[in-house]
Amino acid sequence: MARGTAITRHALDLGWQPPRKADAATVAAAARAGEAAATAAFARAARALAAGMAATAALIEVDIAVAAGGIAQSGEVFSELLARHLRRYAALPFLRELRALPAELGPDAGLVGAAVLASAGIAPVATAHGSLPLVPPDMTRTFRPWRRRPGTTT
To answer: Which residues does 84 contact at the CB level (< 8 Å), separation at least 6?
Structure first.
């Protein structure tokens, strides 16, 4: 839902009429201009991504979630909606500081990360959905260990 092609398809399904090529950049421009179908398509994507980010952050207890790919480059059209939905989904007390940022390396962040791992000789781990890199501990962010809350037993 949060991919450029999905946003474009959803906007078209909602009746959006592209002035030229139908792609995420054109949908973003239409949303900036206030077109309802384009805005709704971005809102749906932001809501889905915020739910995923909040759920993941709850499991691994991080403070920053990074949005990458072309959708993250849509500017305030996407970032404001994402921030609003993230506040809604990140409702647990330890998630209140969670924020989403665009990848500093832009839409090629995933490719750059894969190249770094490949140059370090790190083999991917096969999964049902493709492959994931097996990242050694010294290349990952050090996460805060899970802390028992006062009055809890687990």
So the answer is: 46
Give CA–CA dist 149/88, Å, rounded. 23
- Listing DSSP states for the chain in one string gives --SHHHHHHHHHHTT---SSS-SHHHHHHHHHTT-HHHHHHHHHHHHHHHHHHHHHHHHH--SEEEE-SGGGGGTHHHHHHHHHHHHHH--SGGGTT-EEEE-TTGGGHHHHHHHHHHHTTPPEEEETTEEEE---GGGS--PPPP-PPTT---
- The DSSP 8-state label assigned to residue 122 in this structure reads P
The whole-angstrom separation of Cα 5 and Cα 40 is: 15
Q: Which two tokens stand for residue 6?
A: 């999905």
Q: State pLDDT tens for residues 71-84.
A: 777 888 889 999 99
If one compares 97 and 136, the residue with the highest pLDDT of the two is 97
Minimal CA–CA distance to 10: which of 47, 39, 53, 52?
Answer: 39
- First-to-last C-alpha distance (Å) of the chain: 35
Tokens coding 123: 């083999």
